[in-house]
Specification:
The chain has about 475 residues and is an alpha+beta fold. It has 13 helices and eleven strands. The strands form three sheets. Strands 4, 5, 7, 8 and 9 form a five-stranded antiparallel beta sheet that branches. A three-stranded mixed beta sheet has the order 10-1-11. A three-stranded antiparallel beta sheet has the order 2-3-6, with no helix packed on it. The relative contact order is 0.12.
């Protein structure tokens, strides 16, 4: 027998058994690195890492606060019309001068001179002045009479006239030669205007003209100020409310109407999906759990509902509810969405149930004598809750967009009632002159739909257990 000598690296250890203690360092590291999380805690943890989905969630929360608490902060009436503020752009508070009502003004008159020869050349008026401060309620002009003139032409331009052919908008032709004054009330804005007066004889205009530069100040009549609750007198100034999003074609505050319209859009966009997702969940769950011929019959009914045209039934529901042209149709939209949109959810839930009911843990529960209602409530529905939640998240923007589309084509809410769709329908008529009336509700629709869709994508990834194994 050959004995190998011990190398210098071999050692003999004589350690008592009692001195051995298990090391828990790897267990502590496991607790620190991989904490025990439930399904929903893990889903929330993964959702927080999805920046787009988390940002969308914050946007939705801000929109909900804007919708529910906004009217308590912004006290302007969404139905109050101010014809002096028609289609104005965004403004953040301004002052207005209190002026008299323009209805009682009488233009000044001059006495004609009979000793003037008709051969006298027709010239221009000697003076053209403003008897009162020009304002957005009215601009009053006064001039001296021109001998032998039998009429006067008044023009208004938004720039200085270059010649006699660049006078701008013709406002009036005064055929009474004794009248030497004019009051302009045609959509006056707080900007610079140039007014021109030309004398006329026998329908022949004078080659000479008189022009005056006018800068109207923002004003409100005394009677209108009292109707709004102001205790003021003539020539005083008051602070007008701000319009951060501007005003519409009737002078109504766009921000107040956006808040009020969000309540209608959100009501339909949340209530309708909750109802038809709930119906689809119950219907699909029953069909998938029972299976067999019952499942086939139930799903053929769902396929028939999917084939029904939505707009046709929307019209039929409006007739059934007795809603005529120009009347609000919120209930028909709600009924049409609930009755015609549930099959999509039912088919999704049925597929999930068919897959889950064959899992081993479900078969084990059956072998142990579990009742059907226990299996459904304990195993089937909780495991489909993630898919149902994702479906609901995608159904909400679909319902909001459907309401906006129907209101846009005149089949939703009445034109006077604010909703994002009806506001877009009204804003498209003045898109070229006042683009904010269309862009503001369109931006809110796009932002809401985009936020819900991005949140749905994030929830789908977070609630999918297969995504966890890939990370």
């Amino acid at each position: 027998m050959i004995h190998h000598p011990k190398s210098s690296t071999d050692h003999e250890w004589n350690v008592a058994i009692e001195s051995w203690e298990p090391s828990n360092s790897h267990l502590d590291n496991e607790k620190l690195n991989r904490p025990s999380l439930s399904y929903w805690q893990d889903a929330w943890f993964r959702l927080q890492k999805n920046r787009r989905a988390l940002s969308s969630l914050y946007i939705i929360l801000v929109l909900l606060i804007f919708t529910l608490l906004g009217p308590f902060v912004w006290h302007q009436d969404p139905y109050l019309q101010d014809l002096d503020m028609i289609s104005r752009g965004p403004m953040f508070g301004t002052s207005a001068l209190i002026v008299e009502d323009p209805g009682g003004w009488q233009p000044p008159r001059a006495q004609l001179q009979d000793n003037q020869s008709l051969t006298t050349p027709l010239g221009a008026t000697e003076t053209l002045s403003l008897p009162q401060t020009a304002n957005t309620q009215y601009v009053r002009l006064q001039w001296e009479s021109v001998p032998t003139a039998d009429a006067y032409l008044i023009y208004r331009n938004n720039h200085a006239p270059a010649d006699q052919y660049d006078l701008g908008l013709p406002l009036s032709r005064i055929t009474d030669p004794t009248v030497v004054g004019f009051q302009d009330r045609l959509q006056i804005q707080p900007q610079t205007y140039w007014y021109t007066v030309i004398a006329q004889r026998n329908e022949v205009e004078s080659s000479q003209l008189r022009t005056i530069r006018v800068e109207p100040v923002r004003a409100i009549t005394l009677n209108e100020a009292k109707l709004r609750g102001y205790e003021v007198a003539l020539d005083e100034e008051i602070k007008l409310p701000a319009h951060p999003f501007g005003t519409d074609y009737l002078g109504r505050d766009v921000l107040a109407r956006i808040m009020n319209g969000a309540q209608i859009s959100m009501f339909i966009g949340v209530i309708a999906p909750l109802l038809f997702v709930l119906i689809g969940t119950l219907y699909g769950g029953i069909a998938g759990f029972l299976g067999g011929n019952i499942d086939s019959v139930m799903m053929r009914i769902a396929d028939f509902i999917i084939a029904l045209p939505f707009l046709l039934f929307m019209i039929l529901f409006r007739i059934a509810f007795g809603i005529g042209p120009g009347e609000s149709g919120i209930l028909p939209i709600l009924f049409a969405l609930v009755i015609l949109r549930w099959p999509d959810t039912a088919r999704l839930v049925r597929g999930q149930i068919l897959q889950i009911r064959e899992e081993p843990y479900v078969q084990a529960a059956r072998l142990l004598g579990a009742k059907n209602y226990y299996i459904i409530l304990r195993h089937l529905l909780p495991n489909t809750l993630g898919a149902i939640l994702v479906t609901l998240t995608f159904a909400i923007p679909m319902a909001i967009f459907t309401e906006a589309f129907l209101s846009f084509i005149g089949m939703g809410v009445a034109p006077g009632v604010p909703s994002w769709g009806s506001m877009s329908n009204e804003g498209i008529k003045t898109m070229l002159s006042s683009p904010h009336e269309l862009f503001v509700p369109a931006i809110f629709i796009s932002l809401t739909v985009l936020a819900f869709n991005m949140l749905g994508d994030g929830l789908r990834d977070s609630l999918d257990s297969r995504m966890r194994s890939r990370e």
